[in-house]
Amino acid sequence: MPYEVRLTDEVDAWLHEPADTDVLAYRLADERNERAGGEKALAETRRMIDAYVHAWHLAERRKNAGLTQSDVAGRMGVTKMRVSQIENGDVASVEVLARYVEAIGGRLELTATFDDGTYRMGDASAAM
To answer: Which phi and psi angles does 112 have, rounded to 5°?
Structure first.
């Protein structure tokens, strides 16, 4: 099924006027941000997508380790529903992630990144 792209009159006008490609890119980005609800809404959407992707990878690690959600829930002392929430990206505190990673056989480590280098803070569960 073909996608229909609808442009506002203002964007359509921008596309037909001679313009620097950088300026056009910024104008289109502004239009996209406005339609998405602004920079904050766009940033929140990106954060949610990142959380979901990270959670999916952790769930794949769990499956590869031969563990069920019930197994992990038992190791963490939580319900299977809580594990499901973690694997859907709905729960992403460092403490919860550290406990989940430990339950599937790993160790969550924290690293702070700066312009002039990184600082490894070590095992996240030890910091809790």
So the answer is: -95, 130
